[in-house]
Amino acid sequence: MSEPAGAVRLRGVTVSGPAGALEALIQERDDRRHALAAVVCHPHPLYGGTMHNKVVHRVASVLHELGAAVLRFNFRGAGESEGAHDRGAGEVEDARAALSFLAERYPSAHLWVAGFSFGSWIAARLAASEPKVERLVLIAPPIKTSSFEVLRTWAKPKLVVQGTMDDVCAPSLLEGEFPTWADPKELKWVADASHFFDRQLGGLAEALREELKGPAEAATSRIT
Q: Is residue 148 within 8 Å of residue 174, measured between CB atoms?
């Protein structure tokens, strides 16, 4: 039996990055009818982070559920991606290459960027340097070890989701930093969730749906 038009597929793709080929996965409909597209950045590659991380997978799944074509990729040196870890500088350029890949594939789509932990630091700096990014989603941003100062002047919608029991990115540090970021912004807490949202991935997904459903519907309403 043939697959119906517009069926969802998860495809392996290769993104041309500044340090070599980047391994990536894109989740999209066959008919390419997406008015919203999002890049999701994974946690620290030196600590085992890849695009297959369970939090990254869940974020990507929710974004796709809300109507987005979603690209997740491995930073340089992670998985099958070429190159070597560059302490965050080169990784921003990897993310920029991923965003460009998605923008070329969906030239009229609204573009969002998301990231988890180390990936949220990369996502924040990418968004702040790319005017075409319309919305930012940060999961457990590493406030203690990384600077998010760029968000103090980045006046576009940003959503932060954090577990109340995060033992890697302390909630108290986020509570001190978040008020300094430019509006519009929203902070959602997932009760009893650890840094990796162990047994709380459902709570993470629900927080994302609650805050992003409206904006996603507004973006995807242009599909005819």
A: no
Preceding peptide of 131 cis, ω within 30°: no
Residue 164 pLDDT greater than 90, yes or no? yes
Other Cβ atoms closer than 10 A to 50: 18
Alpha helices in the chain (DSSP H): 54-65, 89-105, 118-129, 171-177, 201-220
Task: Give the DSSP letter string of 174-201.
Answer: HHHHGGGSPSSEEEEEETT--TT-TT-H
Q: How far apart, in whole angstroms, are the C-alpha atoms of residue 138 and residue 147?
A: 13
CA-CA-CA-CA dihedral for 118, 121, 125, 130, to nearest 10: 70
220 and 35 Cβ atoms separated by less than 8 Å: yes
Per DSSP, the three-state class of 93 is helix
Q: Inform me whether the pLDDT recorded for 159 exceeds 70.
A: yes
Q: pTM to 2 decimals? A: 0.95
Cα torsion through 168, 39, 181, 117, rounded to 10: 10
State how far the Cα of 120 lies from the Cα of 185, in Å rounded to an integer: 15
Give all strands (DSSP E) within 31-83, no chain letters.
Answer: 36-41, 69-73
Task: Round to whole Å and give the CA distance between 126 and 124.
Answer: 5
Q: How many residues does the chain have?
A: 224
User: Which numeric CATH code is attached to 8-219?
Assistant: 3.40.50.1820
